[in-house]
Amino acid sequence: MMKRVFKTTIILMIFSLLFSCGGKETVKKEEFDPVLYLKKADELVSKKEYEEARKLLLEIKNRESAKEYAPLAQLKIADSYLKEDETELAITEYRRFLELYPESTYAPYAQYSIAMAYFRQIESPERGAGTAQKALEEFLKLEKMYPRHPYGEILPLRIQKCRNIIAEGELLIGKFYYKKGSYKAAIGRFEGIAKNYPDFKNLDETLYLLADSYKNLQLIDMAKQYIKILKEKFPDSQFAKKAEGLKVQ
Length: 249
Hints:
Elements: H1 2-26, H2 34-46, H3 50-62, H4 70-83, H5 87-100, H6 107-119, H7 125-145, H8 155-180, H9 183-196, H10 203-216, H11 220-233, H12 238-243
Helix pairs in contact: 2-3, 3-4, 4-5, 5-6, 6-7, 7-8, 8-9, 9-10, 10-11
């Protein structure tokens, strides 16, 4: 009886060992392929499975064998946050890219993406002046750091829009003081516009308000000076005609 039990136990152990070894042979170990991982990450992002995509991209970054793909993986991590509407995280990741790979061919794209992340948040002069200032600073960095960037046609338009939004915000504040009769405070804003944003689309109105503010402070020479500039720069403007009604000549 004992012999039979012992024999059965031995047979079961042998079968167990065989099945165990056989199981290991059937498991296929997936090989790491950075190109394939990048492709899979793109597919996941297109399905809005951002976290899963970033896991693959992080693995590429962390593998020594895939270091040549690490910059692209870092850039795609930033892009994924932008597509997820996580703007601040996207900006952080673009900045990380620039810190790690400042000489990369993708660096101008990363810098432009930071600027555009702010630019897209501009809503109006009332609410967007601060964001427009940030976008402007980042666009100017792009011009300075990467003068051979590929955004030559669109960048001047973006910059001009930022400048107009900032100047409009200043004009609104200046008008607020002007209507209150706080002419000195208003003049500070208006003169800032005239000095810093000479290409502002509403500069004619700004110059008119400057002249009238000085007139109200009885600083007639200054009022005359700005009326003269207004007429020289914008002879056909409605504000040039309106300035004649100030009667300071």
